[in-house]
Amino acid sequence: GSHSLRYYYTAVSDRAFGLPEFSTVGYVDDIQIDRYSSDTGRDEPATQWMKEKEGTEYWESETQVNKGTEATYKHNVKVAMDRFNQSSGTHMVQYMYGCELGDDGNIRGYEQHVYDGREFFALDTEKWVYVPTEREAQLTTQKWNSPEVNAPERKKNYLQNICIEGLKRYLSYGRAELERRVRPHVKISDHQSDTTELRCQAYGFYPREIDVKWVKNGRDDVHSEAAKEILPNPDGSYQLRVTAEVTPNEGDSYACHVEHSSLEEKLIVVWPGPSKDAQNMAIIIAIAVVAVLLIVAAIAGFAIYKKRAGKPDAGYTAAANRDSPPSSIVSA
């Protein structure tokens, strides 16, 4: 499958949320490989294979690079606040970049800058030019795109060469973990109301990338309303639930289609129709409705009888109240 190397930098204006003023994390695919924090002042390995394969010199070098970057990003937070005319409050600058190596050998890179949760500016990796998303980023992108600075060309060299070389090296270190493949377990169920909600849950799979969808009559994709968020499990595997609201007509068939790198071919699980629980519930509801109607009819009949018969004779013994149960009758 394809593999990626990604880095995330975060700088904050103050410690209001308990975050370090500056931090970085690196990932190969979904596995964190290193981390740096202004609290520790050191770049540290996050996996055993990174710790074993890279020596003291590597970690010392990365620490020095990150210390320099820390000073730069503390300054960047202040610059961004000035651009937005902000003098106080908690503000955050984030920087994300990385490269991806596809199955076919194709290389893809990206770089994005974010301020207070919104994209600030980004690198267009087709035209190799920085593009401002916010008006306040125009000064920065003009400077970085200028011939004097020529930042896009330097970043192009990094993403297409240096980043890919690093990715290949780290892949060789952690191949056993990074190329692990675990098949998903798939379970389908339904919930009946005015419409039918179909549920397909895939769980226990690795790696994270997966495609799960409902298909009608073997050819039509069914629109899923539920958020298709892939969630982590404690054992490092992942889970995903996809639901769809449908109104089945006679002859319609529905199936959950699952595609994952651990599977040699697409996994198709066919919905057998409304679950027995739902059918049983419908029967119970129907019986309950009939029972209620019978009780109402009986009460109405008794009321008519009373009206006709007048008061009961002296030999009639009224049933005990619920507060004092009868002595000779066992309550059900």
Automatic annotation (TrEMBL):
Swiss-Prot/TrEMBL GO biological process terms: immune response
Organism for this UniProt entry: Xenopus ruwenzoriensis
Record-stated family: Belongs to the MHC class I family.
InterPro entries reported for this sequence: Ig-like_dom, Ig-like_dom_sf, Ig-like_fold, Ig/MHC_CS, Ig_C1-set, MHC_class-I_related, MHC_I-like_Ag-recog, MHC_I-like_Ag-recog_sf
A GO cellular component annotation in the UniProt record: extracellular space
Residues annotated as transmembrane: 281-305
The name this protein goes by in its record: MHC class Ia antigen
SUPFAM superfamilies reported in the protein's UniProt record: Immunoglobulin (SSF48726), MHC antigen-recognition domain (SSF54452)
Keywords: Glycoprotein, Membrane, Transmembrane, Transmembrane helix
Stretches assigned to the Ig-like domain: 184-269
